[in-house]
Design a protein that fits this description.
mainly alpha, Growth Hormone, Chain: A, 2 domains, 17 helices
């Protein structure tokens, strides 16, 4: 007898509740950083040039690129929970440096620590949550739970946007810095509550290097796993990079500076809605996912090209669709990974996202020097249309009957369904 993915045995209810409460609290605290809206102002007020500020962002991105995959292998070889509580402590140290000794090198070290924190958590969190749910016979709830976790993070960002102004007015950079450090410390404490009941690595084993080698070898052997690894950056990298430029897009609609944060909240509300829909739409097959990407891409292009405040609602719809597709791409990946290398391969997908995001930053700058922000946003809808087409072409090639053999044999040799049910 099999269990519906939406149902959990009574004996596992307490375990799922502990996991989800910890996860939602961790996701909220991880993004509840009041420095987010003002750190660029801190850099500028310290006397940094635009070139120096751009170099700090490069340090941040490159740190994640260099540490992403090794940290995933480390999580598989040692402990995912350890990495999840260690990461926020690194960020807390970086934010402390920013506020106490504001200077270029303090900012650079802080961004290195922040990038390391992102690498430590990427892969480890998804792997821990999926494996714990699988142990509790509740892996079918992964999409819903991770969607809600992402929504909790989005709510935290919106709350930080709303609170940063009053806190800054009251205590300046030290106040928003102290609040951000406290959030990081609370995130680290929350991470210690994560359950991690997988078998411990054997003493004297080959370590994280062997884990990395074995995980990559498995990806080379499994075509469907390779496709899932590529889908994650194809879906997530572009819109997450565009988010950094959303304030500039909003300002170009002609609204007052004071109105920009409210319209940004609208866009973030769209992304939050997409996260919350993940559980309901987790059964979307390849055609459904391609349709979501197509609709979201068209909404992005139309909303950006219109250059009016009202049309930003379409951008919110687009971000909601992209967020939904990002969660569903992660679900596909987790279902195809062997649990012994789950964090490793999730980090490989994260590395692809990091590299693609850096590429988007460069391409955006190249486009924007010759055109408006609305034109740049419109052009970046094209990669999503291409991804949707490639998804459908890949599905067609997998379901096409093979030639040769006895009559009717081709139908029996078709690939299994794209979306296996987790039961």
């Amino acid at each position: 007898m099999t269990l519906s993915p939406a149902r959990v045995p009574d004996t596992a209810t307490a375990g799922v509740r502990r996991l989800t409460v910890t996860l939602y609290g961790y996701a909220f605290l991880d993004d509840f950083v009041l420095l987010y809206p003002v750190y660029a102002l801190l850099f500028s007020d310290t006397g940094l040039s635009v070139w120096q500020i751009s170099s700090l962002f490069a340090i941040w991105s490159l740190t994640g690129v260099l540490l992403e995959v090794p940290s995933g292998a480390w999580a598989d070889a040692v402990s995912r929970r350890v990495l999840l509580w260690l990461g926020p402590l690194l960020t807390a140290a970086g934010f402390t440096l920013w506020v106490l000794t504001p200077s270029y090198w303090a900012f650079a070290l802080g961004f290195f620590l922040w990038g390391a924190r992102g690498a430590l958590g990427s892969g480890a969190l998804e792997a821990l949550v999926y494996d714990e749910l699988e142990r509790l016979d509740a892996a079918g709830r992964y999409a819903r739970i991770m969607g809600r976790a992402r929504a909790a993070g989005h709510v935290a960002i919106m709350a930080a946007l709303a609170l940063a102004g009053p806190v800054f007015a009251w205590g300046g950079y030290p106040a928003v810095g102290a609040a951000s450090v406290l959030a990081c410390l609370a995130s680290a404490v929350t991470a210690t509550r994560f359950p991690e009941d997988r078998p411990k690595p054997e003493a004297g084993g080959e370590g994280w290097a062997a884990t990395l080698r074995d995980g990559l070898a498995g990806a080379r052997r499994d075509r469907s796993l390779r496709g899932a690894l590529l889908l994650v950056p194809a879906v997530g990298a572009v819109w997450e990079a565009l988010d950094e430029y959303a304030p500039l897009l909003v300002r170009d609609t002609g609204v007052a500076e004071a109105t920009v944060p409210y319209l940004l909240l609208l866009i973030w509300a769209g992304a939050t809605a997409g996260s919350l829909l993940a559980g309901r739409w987790e059964r979307l097959g390849t055609p459904g996912l391609a349709a979501v990407l197509t609709v979201a891409a068209l909404a992005l292009a139309a909303g950006a090209a219109a250059r009016t405040p009202l049309a930003l609602a379409l951008v919110a719809v687009a971000f909601g669709g992209f967020q939904l597709a990002t969660v569903l791409a992660d679900v596909r990946l987790q279902r195809r990974i062997d649990d012994t290398a789950r964090a490793t391969l999730t980090s490989v997908a994260g590395l692809g996202s990091d590299l693609a995001t850096v590429a988007v930053y460069g391409l955006y700058a190249a486009v924007q020097t010759r055109a408006s922000h609305s034109t740049a946003f419109t052009l970046f809808a094209v990669p999503y249309l291409v991804t949707a087409v490639l998804l459908m072409l890949g599905r067609t090639s997998r379901t096409r009957p093979r030639s040769g053999g006895r009559r009717g044999q081709g139908a029996r040799n078709e690939s299994p369904p794209e979306e296996p049910r987790t039961q």
